[in-house]
UniProtKB/TrEMBL annotation:
Residue span(s) of domain Methyltransferase: 48-139
Transmembrane parts of this sequence: none
Lineage of the organism: Bacteria, Bacillati, Actinomycetota, Actinomycetes, Micromonosporales
Annotated organism of origin: Micromonospora coriariae
GO biological process: methylation
Key words of the record: Methyltransferase, Transferase, Ubiquinone
Name of the molecule in the record: Ubiquinone/menaquinone biosynthesis C-methylase UbiE
Length: 278
């Protein structure tokens, strides 16, 4: 590894999109209720979901607006988003294949812009400035933080064992090395922080913070945990190249030995929301 400096590339989530539906736990419906109440959403205006992925948040919030636009740099994610929208009959959402750095891209203005587990992949100062100028008067930027691929790690008694996440991480590292992978590069220090300073520097005020309970315990099968692993940028399928079948076989063996009756259980994590205003 000659260079650990990371730059975005189009392989970041290559092959991961199809794993999201079963591998990531859904945002709780109470998240939409909380945002609707906090922002006074009444079914009018437009939503911009930046880095929308397969539409997990877009589909949840779209009913609170006249229309929504989901933007993502990964065409596979948008294919999955369109499929999921078709399944639920969501007809008010437009899906656009472009990087956040290419905004405003003629998309117009929006009442709310959301970023869910996506902002850290972007040129944050540039994107924050451009999205600020896309917000209508009284509009808001909403940052949603939640770990949806795995649940809470505590001593709570659950109906099935927790997935063996530490051993899963060790298995991934045995194939890909100890430094976190992301696209064609590496993230030795993880994704960047300092979001609040950036937001203030480009002219936002806040944030207003709310926290939404993750909800009930989720029971998950072996296939769901396999998909959870492949839904991550750090273990996206393309990273394993011709060793993918061997890795998946080892992963399934580990999970089958750790599960009871092929099942796991986890309590969903709470969702943290930061609301910023220009």
């Amino acid at each position: 590894m000659a260079d650990t400096a990371w730059q975005w590339d189009e392989t970041l989530y290559a092959g991961s999109a199809s794993h999201y539906s079963s591998g990531r736990m859904a945002y709780p419906p109470s998240l939409a209720d909380a945002l609707g109440k906090e922002l006074g959403l009444d079914g009018t205006g437009r939503l911009l979901d930046v880095g929308c992925g397969p539409g997990s948040l877009t589909l949840l919030l779209a009913p609170l607006f006249d229309a929504a636009v989901g933007v993502d740099a990964d065409e596979g994610m948008l294919t999955e988003a369109r499929r999921r929208a078709g399944e639920v009959g969501a007809t008010t959402i437009e899906w656009r294949h472009l990087r956040a750095e290419a905004l405003p891209a003629g998309l117009g203005t929006f009442r709310v812009a959301t970023f869910a587990q996506s902002f850290h992949w972007m040129d944050r100062s540039l994107v924050a400035r451009r999205v600020r100028d896309m917000l209508a008067p009284g509009g808001a930027w909403v940052h949603v933080s939640a770990n949806t691929h795995q649940g809470v790690a505590d001593d709570e008694t659950l109906p099935y064992p927790r997935p063996p996440w530490r051993q899963i991480d060790e298995l991934v590292a045995s194939y890909l090395g100890p430094v976190r992978r992301a696209g064609r590069g590496w993230l030795p220090a993880g994704t960047p922080g300092g979001e609040e300073a950036i937001m203030r520097q480009v002219g936002f005020t806040g944030p207003t913070r709310i926290e939404v309970s993750g909800g009930a315990v989720a029971e998950r099968g072996v296939d769901e945990i396999v998909s959870a692993v492949f839904s991550l940028s750090s273990s996206a399928p393309h990273l394993f190249a011709d060793r993918l079948p061997a890795f998946e076989a080892d992963l399934r063996r580990l999970l089958s030995e750790a599960a009871r009756e092929g099942r796991f259980a986890e309590r969903r994590r709470d969702v943290a929301v930061a609301i910023w205003r220009p």
